[in-house]
Amino acid sequence: MLEDKFSEFVGIVKRLRKECPWDREQTHDSIKANTLEEAYEVVESIDNKDYNELKKELGDLFLHVLFHSQIAEENNRFTLEDVIDSINEKLIRRHPHVFGDASVTDADDVKTNWEHIKLTEGRTSVLEGVPINMPSLSRAFRLQEKAAKVGFDWEKKEDVWKKVIEEIEEMHESERNETKEELEKEVGDVFFALVNYARFLKIHPEDALRLTNEKFINRFSYVEKKVAETGKKIHESNLTEMDKYWEESKGKIK
Question: What's the count of helices (H) and strands (E) in the chain, helices before strands?
Fold first, then answer.
């Protein structure tokens, strides 16, 4: 039974906190980086469509939920039951079209209602709740998405693209006349505008860049492999040779 397995899981975590020297000394702060790492590993297994690995990674992430809850309970802050009650109440409150009498026509309506409901929960801005430590591309996407849900958005995709070009030109111009600090802001404006255009294409920029990073790794690894086959180390090669292998890799690695 699911209830029995869940109880066993909770019991294991409680016992580890009591009997394992390493587990016993951990705090919210000491494991927060590990919690984030586990979330990234979940995403990686999804990208790889490795569902056996996803099963394991979700277990690791679930462990962190229980572990943080156990630490909080020991410090008389809240309990695992409080965590479950909180999310149950939130899900019911933010889905009035399921648990109440509200009416929606599509997923966009659901998202819009979600943002409006948040404002009734004591938030003073629709932009609240986007974590400052979130990767910057994802954070930009989420800020734009939240603003768009209350009508602050471009009407046409073509105008968003014009803004991208405008920001690129401003960045290029600032190379000649501005300080590093001002140039940094201009570079940021380019990224922000491009993230906005990606949003209009219904592409998450973090996903897109992650795919490109992996493609670069795979293609550069091919270059390293081909250079090694000549008996040289990569730093003994030159740009002409490496570029030749790079072009070869494009036909092999998409």
Answer: 12, 0
The conformation of residue 236, written as its DSSP 8-state character, comes to G
Q: What is the pLDDT of residues 33-88, one digit of tens each?
A: 999 999 999 999 998 999 999 999 999 999 999 999 999 999 999 999 999 999 99
Q: Over the stretch 235-248, which tens digit does the pLDDT of each residue have?
A: 999 999 999 999 99
Torsion of CA 91, 207, 59, 66, to 10 degrees: -50
Neighbours of 46 (CB within 10 A): 14
Asked if 185 contacts 214 with a C-beta cutoff of 8 angstroms, the reply is no
First-to-last alpha carbon distance for the chain, in angstroms, is 45
The answer to whether residue 129 is domain-embedded is no
Count how many domains the chain has: 4
Domain with 211, as residue range(s), is 207-252
Mean pLDDT for the stretch of residues 96-125:
84
Q: Are residues 218 and 142 in the same domain?
A: no
